[in-house]
Amino acid sequence: MSRFVAFDVETPNRMNNRISAIGIVVIEDGKVLDEYYSPVNPETYFDYFNVRLTGISEETVWDAPTFPQVWERIEPIMSAGLLVAHNAVFDMNVLKRCLNYYAIEWKPYVRYVCTVQMGRRILPGMSHKLNVLCEHYGICLDHHRADSDSRACAQILLRYLEDGADIKQFIRTCSLKK
Description:
Layout: E1 3-10, E2 21-28, E3 31-39, H1 48-54, H2 58-61, H3 67-78, E4 82-85, H4 88-101, E5 109-114, H5 115-122, H6 130-137, H7 146-162, E6 172-175
Parallel strand pairs: 1-4, 4-5
Antiparallel strand pairs: 1-2, 2-3, 5-6
């Protein structure tokens, strides 16, 4: 594996079936190759908690593209490498639920790696929250901002790989069917 697609999503509410922002960082041969960020109009309501956490509200995304419009742009990126996310179960489930909500066909399943799960094996005995790991490694973070979180996830993955982590043992599969 030499191409990874680190991504992070923000959600508008506790339903976690829509995306209000997505950040993507493409890593190839140990280097950041490309970055992508987009706010997303989730076409649904926002919870106060999510607005406070992410800084994204209905007002900030009213003219942003919808998920199907963003998906047209990011699908080739997301299809071109092993997906990586910090707390990947959350991000993979949100992606799956969003694809299903909009009836977007992609793949029946997708392979991914979770940097939280990797960290629990590589750095046992410490917290694996994104902000804690960023502080540990000296990585800049504007937490709960999809672009910054995806960039931090990519940098953490690179640190794990530099330290000799065998990525193959951490690969999981997520079914994208309903």
